[in-house]
Specification:
Layout (H helix, E strand, L loop, with lengths): L1 H14 L11 E7 L4 E7 L2 E2 L5 E2 L19 E5 L2 H11 L8 H20 L7
Antiparallel strand pairs: 1-2, 2-5, 3-4
Helix pairs in contact: 2-3
């Protein structure tokens, strides 16, 4: 079983390093709120410049991929399960804050990981 788990971890690690195009509708910071038992997703708007970089629409500055950034989210979405949060974002919010299918798939995977962490009491770190 360890060999299978190690192989799956290696596949995930490799895929996490691939190039992705940024969603012009914005990005999400996902975390678990254990006090209320929810998965939380803060949505932030951005503009994608001609270099493919995310830019803060208010300041015009590039939003770094790593490091601390101080910005105000536009909306906070919460759900008790990954499915509840996906339904809120993709079916009940108009206009939908997700503009790309691969971004929606990524968020679904992350919401499931956050739900598992919430249920198991383990730490959740967004990929």
């Amino acid at each position: 079983m360890t060999l299978v788990t190690d192989n799956l971890t290696a596949i995930d690690r490799e895929l996490s390093n691939r190039h992705i195009d940024l969603d012009p509708e914005g990005y999400f910071i996902i975390y678990v709120d254990r006090e209320v038992g929810s998965i939380c997703a803060k949505h932030y708007t951005n503009v994608i410049d001609d270099r493919g970089l995310a830019v803060d629409p208010e300041t015009g500055k590039v939003i770094p991929a790593k490091g601390k950034v101080t910005r105000t989210n536009t909306t906070l979405y919460t759900g008790r399960t990954a499915k509840e949060l996906c339904v809120k974002l993709l079916e009940q919010t108009q206009p939908c804050p997700i503009g790309m299918f691969d971004h929606a798939a990524y968020l679904g995977r992350e919401f499931v990981r956050a739900e598992i962490a919430l249920l198991s009491g383990t730490e959740y770190i967004q990929d």
